[in-house]
Amino acid sequence: MIEISGLGKTFIGQDGAAVRALDDVNLTVQENEFLTVLGPSGCGKTTMLKMIAGLLPWDQGEIAIGGAPVRGPGPDRSMVFQNFALLPWATVLDNVAFGLRMRGVGKKEREERSRELISLVGLSGFESKRPGELSGGMQQRVGLARALAVEPSVLLMDEPFGAVDEQTRRLLQEELLAIWEKNRLTVVFITHSMEEAVLLGDRVVLMSARPGQISEIVPVPLERPRSSDVGGVERSSDYVNITAYLWERLREMHEERSVVAGSGPSV
Amino acid sequence: MNANTETRAPARTGWVSAAGKVNASLLSLVVAALAWEVIGRLADVPFFPPLSDVLGVLGDLITDGDIFGNLLTSLGNLALGFALSLVAGLVVGTAMGRYRRVNAALGIYVYALLTAPSLVFAPIFFSILGAGQASIVAVVFMYSAFIMIINTASAVENVSDSLIEMGRSYGAGEWQLVTRVILPAAAPMIFAGIRLGMGRAVTGMINGEMFIAVVGLGRMVTQAGKRFDGAEVLAILLVIIAVALAAIALVQFVDRKVTGWVPATSKESG
């Protein structure tokens, strides 16, 4: 379980002005929950994820995982990055084994474990390829395998499918669902797509920008498993209604922002 | 942008264009040699003899065996000076690129010494270290270390933040982060600096030998110059150029071994 209370962070922007990146964020992610976080750019969703990962400090509040306060990165969490963040000089096998290696797992064991994960994400036969030889979708499968290889209890995903094309993205979503339905990790998944947020999530956290705040938490009562019939999920009235509702809310945020930006004397 | 391409684009230098490259280099060498010969004959001045004279003298130097002892001495100075520079370049450069405070503390000296004419330090080394190998090695170091430090520093600084974040998120400590993520990622750019450093090290070796210790190839150039023997000066110059090219080829060989993962297309521009 992840408990976030009163989380706040102020950045000093390039122009010297203070930007309230996160303001009084309170959120509890349940054990084995797939939580998706949706919001316009600048709402602080990635910032929040990096704080959970222990990669960024914050000014106010507390983050605790399983009751233990977060003080930095830890073996209980692993992260999947939007731009994949693979080591371009290392093979698929070595990339997947990276986290295990950092944790001092012996060569034989980490290669064995990595091969299992490579097969799980459907990349068997590509073990000795380098990232530059793979498509974006395949690279992110490597990123996912690397994250799962360390057997985390929390999987943090930062717009993981944002850099791949639509068809690849749909395939990856289905595969992620299928994997998650088996291992039921706690997942925090950042996205800017309402369809993705609803298809994957148990709840959708809707964030708003300036300051970055949680605007609403929308439960997604769609049945699981969803991976076997994604088409059926997408035709269901819950899916259609929730996505439409989320878009309405997001559009309001954009409109508010353009009103704010357009009104008042410009300085 | 190429995230969706299934495999990376084939390298442009296939064997056909590689052969073309070799032919072009050969042709260029032949033209230069001819030009040298013709200009040398027409000009008819003592310090620019035609290529054939120079090659004749070079042949004599080799058959005498006079040049080998000096060449070995020079190579020893070069190897030692360059090795020390390389260590300094990697260690200091990495520290400067990674830690802002180190950069603030050392940057000014490194830039000052990079731009200062390195030979002005020769008399200082001469008076402290004497007219021996140590002084020449020190001169070689002054010539080659700072370009490698600066280059390594900016290579390390330019490693993408997301790779570093990735490393930290998987629990890499500072040492692991530097050795397993930052240095490999920075390697292609670091090697560009090492190549420059090697070229400067050869210059430093010759200048040091001519100026300070009068040993090695530098001594031979000085002596030939004093005899107004232009052909021998140029013959030794050819040897020095060969040394420089061989040294740089060695760096490139190691570069290719270490950074073979960089796609050929993105390397061509560098």
Short description:
The complex is a heterodimer of chains A (267) and B (270). Chain A is of the alpha/beta class.
Annotate the secondary structure layout.
The complex is a heterodimer of chains A (267) and B (270).
Chain A: E1 2-12, E2 18-29, E3 34-38, H1 45-53, E4 60-65, E5 68-69, E6 77-80, H2 92-96, H3 98-102, H4 107-120, H5 136-149, E7 154-158, H6 166-183, E8 186-191, H7 194-200, E9 203-208, E10 213-219, H8 230-235, H9 237-262
Parallel strand pairs in A: 3-8, 3-9, 6-7, 7-8
Antiparallel strand pairs in A: 1-2, 1-4, 4-5, 9-10
Chain B: H1 15-43, H2 51-64, H3 66-98, H4 100-115, H5 122-129, H6 133-157, H7 161-169, H8 174-213, H9 216-226, H10 230-258, H11 264-268
Helix pairs in contact in B: 2-10, 3-4, 3-6, 3-8, 3-9, 4-6, 5-6, 6-8, 7-8, 8-9, 8-10, 9-10
Percent helix range of chain A: 25-40%
Describe the largest sheet of chain B.
Answer: none
* CATH-assigned fold name of the largest domain in chain B: MetI-like fold
The pair of chains with the biggest contact is:
A-B, 36 and 27 residues
Strand content of chain B: under 5%
How many DSSP H or I helices of chain B? 11
* Cα-atom radius of gyration of chain A: 19 Å
The tally of structural domains of chain B comes to 2
What overall form of chain A do the CA principal axes indicate? globular
* Main sheet characteristics of chain A: 6 strands, mixed
Averaged pLDDT of chain A: 93
Annotation, overall tally of beta strands of chain B: 0
Rg value of chain B: 22 Å
Q: Which CATH class of the domain at 2-76 and 186-260 in chain A?
A: Alpha Beta
Please report the distance between the alpha carbons of the first and last residues of chain A: 46 Å
Outline the structure in words:
The complex is a heterodimer of chains A (267) and B (270). Chain A is of the alpha/beta class. Helix content of chain A is 39%, strand content 24%. Chain A has a domain at 2-76 and 186-260: Rossmann fold, CATH 3.40.50.300. In chain A, the strands form two sheets. A six-stranded mixed beta sheet of chain A has the order 6-7-8-3-9-10, with helices on both faces. In chain A, strands 2-1-4-5 form a four-stranded antiparallel beta sheet, with helices on one face. Chain B is mostly helical. Chain B folds into two domains: 14-44; 47-268, Orthogonal Bundle (MetI-like fold), CATH 1.10.3720. Chain B is globular and about 70 Å long. Chain B starts with 14 loop residues before the first helix and ends with a helix.
